[in-house]
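Bench notes, afternoon.
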Amino acid sequence: MKCRWVVWFAVFLLVGFTALVSSAQVSPGASFYQKALQEMKAGNYNEALVQIQSALAQSPEQLEFQYELGVIYFNLGRLDESEGIFQALVHQDEALFGKAWFDLAHIAMKRGKRLEAIGFFEKARPVDPGRADLEAGIAYLELKDYQKAIDAFRNAQSEKPELVFQARMYESAALSKQKKYGESIKLLESLLKTKLTREQNDLVSYLLTMLRADERNEKRWHVSGSAGFLYDTNLTLNPVAPVGIQHPSNESDFAQATSITGRYDLVRNDPWVFGAGYNHYNLTYFEHPNESVLAASPLLYGYWNNPPYFASLEYVYGHYWAGESSKADVHSIYPVFAFNTTQTWRTQMLGWASWRQFYDTTPSDQLYGVGVIEYYMMRKGLAHLRAGVLWGVDDTSPGDAGSFSSAQFTAGFQWPVWKDKWFIDISGFYVIRDYRFDPAYFSEVSRTDNEKDLYVALRGPITDNMQIVFLFQRVWNDSNINVVEIGGSYEPFSYERSIFSCLLTFEF
């Protein structure tokens, strides 16, 4: 007998709720109400406000119209008016308008009152416990209470299976904030085994790439390197010394190239990191061994990473061998400062200073430069456009041996071409160099060179830690210096050069 009364009571509530919705649809303001819903769906909240006010003018007793008015006010940023409506609804009929607790929580989140929002989500649990736990978890995440956030996300997916994707994504974010990168990665990998849309699959794959990079960066030891082959069409080129009959140009050759760098973070005190490292570089030509280069470079580095700001300073000492003889000692400093002005714009300011001491007859020199490059980020940082200007000075000793100043203009872009894993990067440079040259060569004519460079790179992963890079570089240099010879003339400082490379790069 008691069970029969329970069934009849449930039927009574269902019929009552259906009657409430039906009354909203058949009330005098129903047509305006439907138009308001259509405008809200289209995001036209100002027009939706006009329609819902017309609906309420004809049917002021309709609480559902009042509720939608509160939603419209919220989306228009009129939080006080929206809050007043939702508070009135939950006090007047909480059984039918318990969903307004969610809206009150959203208003609190908008105002930055996350603890207050969590209280509202708790009151909304009888309406939709899974959704309440998910959104409370987001509030805990923003409060940096990561363990409570994780517990809430796990509750959400157990209470409401259709929230599994969202809950696991947020749980992964909370685990990464705790620096539990292994657990975070396993959680996302488990998502890839479920049925996902293409957009969801791409998003999870992108986040996995970011997490693996963060996991590597968290380690004190960093080992990276490259190995491969290149073909150079003008390897004997010396852009300072003239190319004449005695020094033929366009000598081409294949070479093997290897580079390995090890770094160790000596001090890590977030956001500061200081460390030391070593780079070993080898470029060996097959038919021109005297043009081969070997370099040994210890280095010191430090950086400060406090998003949206980043600053670093690196000192590198390099000893270079050409053929089998010592070629030069080089001391270099590289400062960098970068910041994000918005989510899409990033500015990078960089500089360099190098002191080169050569062991042969090549004049020693000092190089200085500064530059700024602006990035426009797209597709969650996977793609970007960039453009910038760099200024440099090369002072030789003695000063009449080929010193120059330069202005360099650059533009380029990076774009994913396959599954957000393979990328193409194209950049161009236009360089103007003004030389102060030895008057024994040119006493009345100053030298100006215009150089144009094109770089095209295609890269993609082979494993999580290794990728392959195909690179094409092309250089055109035009100089105003022409030397008249008997029977014709030639341009000793004009040249072209192409380099084709294929490299395997890795990072552990």
